[in-house]
Amino acid sequence: MSLLSVRAFFAAHAPDIEVLVTEESSATVPLAAAAHGVAPEQIAKTICVRAGEMTALVVMSGTSRLDNRKFRDRFGAKPRMLGGEEVQALTSHPVGGVCPFGLPSPIAVYCDVSLRKFPEVVPAAGATNAAVRISPERMADLTGATWVDVGQDPASAGDTAAQGTAHHS
């Protein structure tokens, strides 16, 4: 079970961080923001993408979108968001609960600089009603993430953004 693997991850690597389970769903950015009393920008959504032969998790601000040009410039290929079944098979987390914690096998993790404007962010924690509160720097440290700038400013989001309605965290 995914929530159990996330709890085990934090028990082993950061026992001071509590996995928060809510009665209500936090499977989308607006639901997560409401459930945890934060702005949607403070939700750290995790999307699973493939670019060429590389599969990676990109964690970014809840209102950011992938910028195809920035992504292609950084990784040499256009990002393709994975479907729900593929995401769950790869991460063990259901769509709406995808996070960079408690993964069954190593996956490259990238944190977008959009997260750095917050002292604390709220990523999912392996279930559609589970999350943690963590500083972006600590999340990157715990997951071995690399910082990248692949997000598009929400105000300028347009046709060049990777458009997808599926929310993976």
Automatic annotation (TrEMBL):
Stored SUPFAM superfamilies: YbaK/ProRS associated domain
Domain of life: Bacteria
InterPro entries noted in UniProt: YbaK/aa-tRNA-synt-asso_dom_sf (IPR036754), YbaK/aa-tRNA-synth-assoc-dom (IPR007214)
Region Disordered, residue ranges: 150-169
Record GO terms (molecular function): aminoacyl-tRNA deacylase activity
All copies of domain YbaK/aminoacyl-tRNA synthetase-associated, residue ranges: 24-141
A Pfam family per the record: tRNA_edit
Protein name: Cys-tRNA(Pro) deacylase, prolyl-tRNA editing enzyme YbaK/EbsC
